[in-house]
Specification:
Elements lengths: L10 H12 L4 H7 L3 H4 L1 E4 L2 E4 L7 H13 L2 H9 L26 E2 L2 E2 L1 H20 L12 E5 L6 H9 L9 E5 L4 H7 L8 E6 L6 H20 L7 H5 E5 L2 H7 L6 E3 L16 H28 L6 H15 L4 E7 L6 H13 L17 E3 L11 H6 L6 E6 L7 E2 L2 E2 H18 L3 H6 L18 E6 L4 H22 L10 H14 L3 H5 L3 H13 L2
Parallel strand pairs: 5-6, 5-7, 7-8, 8-9, 10-11, 10-12, 12-15
Antiparallel strand pairs: 1-2, 2-15, 3-4, 13-14
Helix pairs in contact: 1-4, 4-13, 6-12, 7-12, 7-14, 12-18, 13-18, 14-18
The structure holds 6-O-phosphono-beta-D-fructofuranose (F6P).
The site of 6-O-phosphono-beta-D-fructofuranose has 14 residues, from loops.
Length: 551
Amino acid sequence: MAMPIDATQTPAWAKLAKLRDELRVDFRTWFETDPERAERHSYQAGELFVDLSKSYITDEIKEALLELARDVQLSERRDAMFAGEKINVTEGRSVLHTALRQPEGNSVYVDGADVVPGVHEVLARIFDFADRVRSGQWRGITGKPITTIVNIGIGGSDLGPVMAYEALKPYVQDGLECRFISNIDPTDLGEKLRGVDPETVLFIVASKTFTTLETLTNARQARAWLLEELQAAGIDAEGAVAKHFVAVSTNLEKVAEFGIDPLNAFGFWDWVGGRYSVDSAVGTSLAIAIGPQGFADFLGGFNTMDEHFKNAVDEENVPLLMGLLNIFYCNFMGAATHAVLPYAQYLHRFPAYLQQLTMESNGKRVRWDGSDVTTTTGEVFWGEPGTNGQHAFYQLIHQGTQLIPADFIAFSNPIYALKDGEFDQHELFLGNFFGQTKALAFGKTEEEVRAEGTREEIVSARVFPGNKPTTSIMAPALTPAVLGQLIALYEHITFVQGIVWGIDSFDQWGVELGKQMANQLTAAVAGDEAEIAKQDPSTRALINFYRDTRF
Ligand code: F6P
């Protein structure tokens, strides 16, 4: 891997700093004096219509950002990723989630071997399995078909599947339901198994490494629960694990050790990062729920965005432009956070999904050669669906002192076409999306507030400064293909930012220390006095509080 180029030392960086100093954002004037602004700064990527005109983009800033991309050799790094080069340097791995959505017949090489045939081999097994579960051919120990799929996984082995399942609910086969257990908090398992019928449940234990404490603990609990429940109902549980447990992992040896037949395991590869894995076997629960065709469409959507990212000219390359704009907000305008606001209830887990994708990827303090980063990295991503967010935190976006760029996402066609009197409810909903982005951009001046007859003492409190940047993303409908496009869009935005910062966006060493400490603390929490005595005073006090107050 080539040495990272220090973006802050490039001529483009200096240009951007100058443009930032001269920047006087004034959306009212910008739109009045430039009637083409909306059209010039709107783009199409697959089925996504992306309007950047209410962002801080200007022709000069766009040009300087694209120059920055060239200065840091972004297209070379992108091509290296797609070609299977080991750009995850700290783990010595290729980064090939894009290979998971390559059509059959294409080739991508890792260490001289084409990985695409293997991808389709596993997909074919998953699809066959999904068909058997969906048709009722795959049966539980007492011969009943499966009705409930419980995915046990955490991080990338949970967030992608649960987000996509929730997003694609209208595509889920009637009579099938998925549940997701992730937290080691016993409450999660306890609550999610309430009402589950042991005769018709299928557990999918999803773990890339098959060593994750949360997942293995929950999987053991689920296995014990299954056997106990069956026995309590007077059913011979012999052989039940084979009928009610399958696994998804890169570590098939560990799967076998756990007691799941490798024939009932779906593999993937170390070149798929956990947070990039919903399109691998990790998506098996989704493939069962929405069916092979739906899942193939989902993968097709990812591929559409991959092709766009690879082939669209820089000036119209949406992930490139959005990633670079994030750099501008983060490194030049001091934005520390970025809101993602889906106007689609089905996308209610999308911000949570994006948090792992973006923050586990780009929350780094050293570059891929081990040297310190030279500028701020990794903004905080957060969000909630609109309109709920409007009644909670939008106040701060509109009138607070921090700059919070926000992505608004919506779809033209709702699943529920409801009328409220003469009004179409989806149109009321979209009116909120359009109204919010308008209010954020154009605000309300003192004069306008006064003209409404507002008492002078509260005029300033009722002023909306406006000039808050937003990106609007729309698509005709939230289909599996569109969801794939949306996810891949954010994957590539994350990639772009990581390259500018010179970091390895594909490792996650920052999660290790806490895991290690949790393991080391087990004995102390369980009351081992010698272990308790070894702790720092704060930790000791917390453990003692726990031990003194538990019932
Ligand atoms: O602890 C972080 C992490 O390694 C994530 O990167 C990953 O998605 C998650 O844990 C789960 O890991 P696994 O799929 O190996 O159980």
